[in-house]
Amino acid sequence: MGKCKIGIIGFGTVGKGIYRILNSQNDSHPILNEIEIIGIAVKHINKKRDIKFENNLLINDPYELIEDPNVDVIVEVMGGTDVSKDIILKSLKARKSVVTANKAVIARYGSEIYATAAKYGVYVLTEAAVCGGIPIIEPLKRSLKSNQINKMVGIINGTTNFILTKMTNEKADYNATLKLAQKLGFAEFDPSADVEGHDAADKISILTELAFGGEIIRDSISTQGIEKINIKDIEYANKLGFEIKLLAFSERNHVDINDSLSLNIWVAPSLIPKSHPLAMVGGVNNAILIDASPLGEIMLYGPGAGSGPTASSVVSDILALHASLSKKIPSIDPLLSSNYWRDCHIADFNQISKKNYLRIICLDTPGVIGKIGDLFGKNDVSIESIVQLDASENKAEIVVITHEVTNGKFEKSKQEINALSEVELIASQLSCI
Amino acid sequence: MGKCKIGIIGFGTVGKGIYRILNSQNDSHPILNEIEIIGIAVKHINKKRDIKFENNLLINDPYELIEDPNVDVIVEVMGGTDVSKDIILKSLKARKSVVTANKAVIARYGSEIYATAAKYGVYVLTEAAVCGGIPIIEPLKRSLKSNQINKMVGIINGTTNFILTKMTNEKADYNATLKLAQKLGFAEFDPSADVEGHDAADKISILTELAFGGEIIRDSISTQGIEKINIKDIEYANKLGFEIKLLAFSERNHVDINDSLSLNIWVAPSLIPKSHPLAMVGGVNNAILIDASPLGEIMLYGPGAGSGPTASSVVSDILALHASLSKKIPSIDPLLSSNYWRDCHIADFNQISKKNYLRIICLDTPGVIGKIGDLFGKNDVSIESIVQLDASENKAEIVVITHEVTNGKFEKSKQEINALSEVELIASQLSCI
Question: Residues near B384 by Cβ (< 8 Å), separated by ≥ 6?
C-alpha cells in the first residue's frame, strides 16, 4: 500500500494537533507512518508558532494543494464558512476526498457537499466536526447501522458545560463564570455561537441527518442558549434532584402521510435527574446518549474539544480514507459515504412534546399555587411538581415541573399564568428530560 | 451491489435476534435489505421455537453452509469452544468471512483464527463477542487507531454487575442474589464463567490484543471473581465513598529490552470512587473507559448482553463485510482485519502495581492498627487509609486501603500481617482504582 498524501488547510489548534500525531514517537499503530503531509496552507507563513515543524511544508495558497496531483486527501481545519465551503467543494470536484472538522459548514451545506462527493466518487468525512475526540459519526455510520435510531440526547458543547458545571459547583453567576471561561481559554472572545446554543444546533443537525437519513433545515432547529440561566435555577434544580445541562435533543416522532419522518429536534438548557447518566458529565466533556432498536441505550462520553482529541478524530478519518482509497476501485463504500435515504422534516414546534420547568415570581398570597395549577389543568397540562421554594418580603418563587406536554398547550398556559394579577414575572423556562 | 448471503450457525438468543433484525419492519437503513439468510444450521430442526420464521431455512449440518458456494459470510452464534473453533477455521479456509459472538473461542484461539483469515484473504469480525451491543471492537480498529492506547478499564460482565448492584442496593448477601439472578435469567445455571471472572478475562484478552497490537496468553491473566464478596465489604466500601465493581483492567507498562510491550492485565472485584464515571454503571449494563494519547479519556456505555444488543453488533459486522466484500478485490482492508503489529507480554504478577483494599478481622486490642501500619511501612507499602470499622465482643474489623504498590510488596506485607498474633483472619482482598 502506497502512502496517503495529505494537504492540510489551516494550522491552528487542530492542524498542529494533526502534525503532532503524525510526527510523534508514540507507540501507536504503524499504519500511521503511511500518512505523509505534502503541504500546509496558512495565511501567514512567517508567523511565530508554538510548535517545532518542517518549515518548508508551509505554503500560502490552499488551492495549490487542491490542484496538486500528489495530494490524495485535503484536510480542512481552517474554520469559518464561506471560504472553507469553497475549499471543500473545489477539493471534491478535483476528486480528492476531504476530512473536515468544520461543523458550521457541514451543518449548513451538508446536502450540497455530500452530493458533490457522491458525484465525483470521493468522500467527505466529519468525525472531528462533532464532539471532538468521541467516536460518534463513525459508530452512526457503521456499528449502529443495523438499528433504527429512536432518540439522541447529548451534552455536545464543551464551553457551556464548563460554565454550567462551574456555576453549579461554585454557586457563581453566569457573567462572572463566562469571564472565567474566557480567561481560561474555554470560551471564545465572542462566545455567542457557544452560549446561544448555535454550535450545539450545528452538531445535532449533522447527527440527525446521519441517524435518521434525511436532510433537515439547520436554521429551523429550535435553539435556546444558557445566557439567561440564573444561579437560582441551578440551586432550585439541585434541590429538587436535578442538574441543569445544555442538551441537544433529536427524536423520531412519526412518519407522515407523505412518508416523511417527522423529527422532534431542539437545543435548550434542561433539567436532568441526578441519577441520569448524562448528569455526571462535567466540565468541557461531552456525552451523547443514543436510544436505538433493538440495541437499547448506549452512551458515548469523552473530551468534546481540544487539539489532541479533535486531531485524533481527523487522523482516524484520514486512515479510513487511506484504507479505502488505496484499493483504487471506482465503487463507493456505502458505510463510509454520507447519503440520504429517506425524507425527514422537523416537526411543527407547537406539536412537539416535552417536559418543562418554569420559575414564576409572584405575590406571596394564599391560593396562588392553586390558581396556577388550575390554569395548567384547564389547558390539559399535567404537572409533575409545583413547589414554592423561596419567599422574601411579600414575594414568592414558585417552581413548576410539568409532565410531557405539547409546546402549544404549554405556551398557552404560560401566557394565561403571566396574565394573573398575582404573577409578577415568569423568570425562567427550561426543558426537562 | 449484489446481496450479501449469510449462513447462520446456531439459532439461540443471538441467532433469533439476527433473524428479527433482518425481518423487521423497522425504519432502519435500507442497506439491511441487502442481507439474505441462506440457511440456519441447528441441532434439532423440529424443536419448538418462540419466534415466527421461515421453517425451510433450517438445516442440520453446519458444514453444508460452509461448503455452499452461495454463502458469502458465516455467522457463528452457537457458542462453545471446540466445535465452533473448527467451524470458524473451516469457514475461513473455504474463503468465507466469519462474524462471531464467541468470546471464549476468540480469546483462546485468536492468533490461529486471525492468521487463517489473513492467509485466505478473508475477515473474522468479533464486535458481538465483547460488551454485547456497545461498539468497542470497531472503535478500537478504526476511530481510535490514530492513538496510542494507554489503559482500558471496564465493567464488561453483565451478570456480575447485576449481582453486585443488587447486593449494594438491597444489602443482600451473595448467594441469595446469585439465586435471584439465576431465576431472572441474568445468570446461567452454572454461573462459574461469569462469577469467577473468566468471561471478563476472555473479553479483556480480546480487547488487549486489539488495543496494544500483540498476542497475549489468555490463561496468564490474573483473574479474581466475586464469589467471596461479603456484604460487609460492600457496606464498608460505600461508607468510605466507593462502589465495588468487577473490573477488567489492561494497561501499558513499559517496553522491555526485547522491544516487547509489558502489559498490566487483571480482572478483580475493585473499589472505585463514587464520583468515577464507571461507578454509575448499574445492573446488566457494561462500560469501558479508554485512556489514549492524544485523545484523553473516553467511555463507551450500554447493554452488555441480550438478544437485541448482541444481534445488533453481529448485523453491523455483516454490513461491514458486505460493504468491503462487494468490491471483489484481492487486498485486505487493514482497518477491518485483525493483525498483530508488535510483541506484547503480560507483566510479571509481582511487578504489577495497583491499589488494594484489605479487610482484616483481629482482636480488639490497643495498638493493633499501629502494628499493621508498621508492617506495611517496613515493606514500603504506602497507606491511603486505615480504619477500624466494626467491633463486636472482643473482635475488630480493620479496613486498609493502600496507595499504588507492587503485588510483590503487598503480598509480603499481607503474609506478615496474617502472622500477627492479634490477627485472626484476612477476610477479603480487593483491588482499587
Answer: B355, B401, B402, B403
Closest CA to A339 of A209, A207, A151, A221: A209
B191 phi, psi to nearest 5 deg: -85, 5
DSSP, collapsed to helix, strand or coil, labels residue A195 as: helix
Check A27 against B341: CB less than 8 A apart. Answer: no
Identify the H or E element spanning A312.
helix A307-325
* Secondary structure of residue B43 in the 3-state scheme: coil
Lowest mean per-residue pLDDT among A124-133, A226-235, B381-390: B381-390
Which residues, listed in sequence order, are joined to residue B356 by a DSSP beta bridge? B431
Q: Alpha-carbon distance B75 to B7, whole Å?
A: 6
Nearest to B102 by CA among B87, B119, B122: B87
| A-proximal residues of B, 339-368, CB under 8 Å | 341-342
Residue A328: per-residue pLDDT: 61
What is the rounded CA–CA span in Å between residue A384 and residue A386? Answer: 7
Amino acid at A41: A
B27 at A interface, C-beta within 8 A: yes
Sheet holding A4-9, edge to edge: A58-59, A35-41, A4-9, A73-76, A97-100, A124-125
Nearest alpha carbon to residue A102 among A72, A128, A123: A128
Kindly give the pairing relationship between strand A344-346 and strand A353-363. unpaired
> Is B393 a residue whose pLDDT tops 80?
no
CB atoms closer than 10 angstroms to residue B212: 24
Strand pairing report for B242-255 and B261-273: antiparallel
What's the mean per-residue pLDDT of chain B?
94
The helix/strand/coil state of A239 is helix
- Yes or no, beta carbons of B295 and A315 under 8 Å apart: no
Domains and CATH numbers, chain A: 4-137+307-341 (3.40.50.720), 144-303 (3.30.360.10), 351-432 (3.30.70.260)
Interface residue B51 vs chain A (CB under 8 A): no
Q: Which residues have C-beta within 8 Å of that of residue B280, sequence separation ≥ 6? A: A275, A277, A280
Q: Say whether pLDDT at B1 is over 80.
A: no
In chain A, the percentage of residues whose pLDDT exceeds 90 is: 87
Active-site pick, A5, A96, A203, A414: A203
Which residues 365-424 in chain B show a CB within 8 A of chain A?
A: none
In whole angstroms, give the CA distance from residue A405 to residue A350.
Answer: 10
For residue A41, pLDDT over 90 is answered with yes
Q: Which amino acid is at A370?
A: G
- Return the residue in A22, A26, A138, A146 with the most chain B beta carbons within 10 A, the one to mutate for interface testing: A146
Query: What is the mean predicted confidence (pLDDT) over B180-190?
Result: 93
Mean pLDDT of A25-49: 93
Q: Helix or strand or coil: residue A127?
A: helix
Between CA B125 and CA B131, with CA B130 as vertex, the angle to 5 degrees is 135
Query: What is the value of ipTM here, to two decimals?
Result: 0.93
Partner residue opposite B280 with nearest CB, options A24, A213, A277: A277
d(CA B146, CA B140): 10
Q: Which residues, 6 or more positions from A87, have their beta carbon under 8 angstroms from its beta carbon?
A: A9, A62, A63, A66, A74, A76, A78
- Per the CB < 8 A criterion, the answer to whether B4 and B72 are in contact is yes
Active site residues of B: 203
* Strand-pair partners of B398: B360, B388
Name the phi and psi angles at B110, rounded to 5: -50, -50
C-alpha cell at B326: 462487494
Q: How far apart are CA B375 and CA B369, in angstroms?
A: 10
CA-angle at B264, arms to B262 and B265, nearest 5°? 125
In this structure, the strands spanning A261-273 and A344-346 are parallel
Q: Within an 8 Å CB–CB cutoff, is residue B21 touching chain A?
A: yes
Does residue A232 carry a catalytic annotation? no
The grid coordinates listed for B82 are 471446540
